[in-house]
Amino acid sequence: MTIKRVSIKNFKSIDSATFDLNDLNAFVGKNGTGKTTILKAIEYFFDNLIDLNISNDIFDSNSLYHKPVEISIEFDFSRILKYSSGVYEMKLFSMMLFNAEKYIVTMKQEKNKLPEWNIGYDERYIIYNSHPVYFCDTRSISLTDWSEIWNVVGDLINAKDAREITREISDNIAISEFSKFKKYSNIVNSFMEENGLTIKSDNKKDSILKLLQQQLGGMEFIKQGKELEYYSDGTNSLNYILFLCYIGFEISNNRLKDVTILLDEPEQGLHPKMVDELMYKINSYSKKVVFVIFTHSPRILTSLMNKGGTLYRVRVLNDHMMLNKMYGFSDEREQFFISDRESSCFFSDFILCVEGVTEIELFSHKLLRELFPVLFKVDIVNVDSNDVVLKLFYKTSKKTGLPILVLNDLDKFITFTEESNKYQMKYKRKTSYSPFKTMDEQVRKLKLSISKDGNKQQISQLKNLLKLNDKEFVCESKFDSIPEFDEVFKDIQQILMRHDILATRTTIEGSIINIKTNKWLLRWLRDEYEIKFNYEKGIEASQKVAINRLLLNGKTDMLLSIKHIPEVKKDDYFSNKQTFKKTSGWVTEFLNYYSEKVMGQKQYMNKNGLNMKRKRFENDFPEIYAIIKIIESKLNSK
């Protein structure tokens, strides 16, 4: 381990940020959130550690008062102390006298002034040599000229080895095998001595580096006999990064040095398999090297999560960078359920967790996105009753402030058992995240909390809901609703919303098919599929809605499906045997029809048309509209 902790204050858009580092680390976030600013702050620290490379561009340009920039880095010397000896060991012990194995170095700089350090130059020089840090921004490196990487290779050379090699070469030049070489050097030396000239000696490391290049045949890299220009940017970028990581690993492995490598968007130009190869190697090298990766690649994030890396989410709040540590895996199963799709959500503004493809089809429809552009900021994830993934999203939301909403059908939480027009309500115990499983415990905690007086309403609400388990409701028709339960549903919804859960009154199909939209549904079935429904005489409009929900895989208000109501048969209604499964795309087809026949009317074509369309949508799809407004509210309050 090399760098353990970094603290940055007042550096550009960073007001204050402190983070710990382990072997594998990643900072994730969308473009422009400030990931690269973190890298630049660390780079500025090391650029000025033993040299002067100051700039006034490091200060917050949006602030009237330029507060001093302060960067502190905590270094771990435990491994180096374990293997050091002699004078070097004594120097380290004198440095670490009051700090055991950790050492904190702080740089402060005011505008138009030089940096100030909490330690002297000699100590900083030791840090510079013992804890080398290499930066790689794939957007700015030359992919065909790798000469810069020789500077890293030079750190592989031990000073003692360099002196011995130089001495051996000088001794060997004197023997007969090197007589021709000596002849050429004597010719040059003769003129130089006569004219008082000398050659400024390279340091030992540079001399050995040149010999190494000579031994390898030169300093220009080629691949399989071809110039690097022959290959794609992706191939060259991958090989460059891999070479840097490999040399860093060998430096830590062979020298008394602890290497850190910072990679900014290493995924640039790499196809997915190249990213996999890169991350496989990085994971292997992380046994000796600390890697800090700044990325917006879901594939890199997936790999790091599966390897137990430390993850930080970067976002912008009030023009300043915000940093939150994300939870690691507490459940080994999480590693096997996280794909690139789930990983991509950690770059999102909002996560909407749903339990089926119908919800994805609905909230991705072009009509909804035209009316409510806020949906473009929403990542819709089909957790499909996958509690492991949902649990991970919950943890991430709680830790990082990433807004989340879990949208479920009501039957996820309660069920009705029907007998002789009596419906007995029960809370479902199988749903792991249901707050109704732990209502007794919630009441107990609320009573013990400091703000218990302010919790009286919530306690009363929970107690009332507890009493409703096994309660019977009377309903004369399977197709009707019960006004008494409609009031209960409001309390259920409030309890769920405290846990970022929203339940539809029945199912998502019930949100689409309602008393307002039913006539358009029937017209669509008639126009597109030549289906005409023949209802029994005297049937009420609300009962027609319930039947249509059943036929399109929804449920009644009492959460009964078509299998519970044998008198409703699809064959009696769908005369041409057309079936509408959840994955048949009927939602898209119906909304397309509604968009053309309703929203395409002339009255919505004026300058105020968009607002009028939203009003019409609110009137026709009140439950869907309410869901979107909740999403909008949560986004605005994040």
Structure description:
Helix 6 packs across helix 8. Among the domains are: 3-146 and 238-325, P-loop containing nucleotide triphosphate hydrolases (Rossmann fold, 3-Layer(aba) Sandwich), CATH 3.40.50; 159-216, no CATH class. It starts with a strand and ends with a helix. It has a six-stranded mixed β-sheet with strand order 7-10-11-3-12-13, sandwiched between helices. A five-stranded antiparallel β-sheet has the order 2-1-4-5-6, with helices on one face. The protein has a four-stranded parallel β-sheet with strand order 15-14-16-20, sandwiched between helices. The longest helix has 22 residues, at 233-254. It is elongated. By secondary structure, it is of the alpha/beta class. This is AAA family ATPase. It comes from Vagococcus coleopterorum. InterPro entries: AAA_GajA/Old/RecF-like, Bact_Antivir_Def_Nuclease, P-loop_NTPase. Residues 1-115, 159-300 form the Endonuclease GajA/Old nuclease/RecF-like AAA domain. It holds the Pfam family AAA_15.
Let me know the CATH homologous superfamily of the domain at 3-146 and 238-325: P-loop containing nucleotide triphosphate hydrolases
Distance between the termini: 36 Å
Largest sheet: 6 strands, mixed
Tell me, briefly, the overall form: elongated
Widest beta sheet: strand line-up: 7-10-11-3-12-13
